[in-house]
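Duplicate of #3305? Posting structure anyway:
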């Protein structure tokens, strides 16, 4: 029973919604795997150029 809750929680993290701009993008899951942050490609680039 607790495994089902953990699986649902993990699947919720893979919803492709960016934490910064709140838009849905395919690159969110890719960046989550690569960097550990749920951000889309455009937010990642802007954070790299302007790290404030």
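Output from current build:
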């Amino acid at each position: 029973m607790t495994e089902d809750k953990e699986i649902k929680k993990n699947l919720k993290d893979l919803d492709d919604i960016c934490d910064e701009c709140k838009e849905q993008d395919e690159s969110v899951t890719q960046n989550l795997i690569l960097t550990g942050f749920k951000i889309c490609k455009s937010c990642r680039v802007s954070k790299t150029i302007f790290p404030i």
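Confirmed duplicate; merging threads. The chain has a mean pLDDT of 84. The chain has one domain: 2-49.
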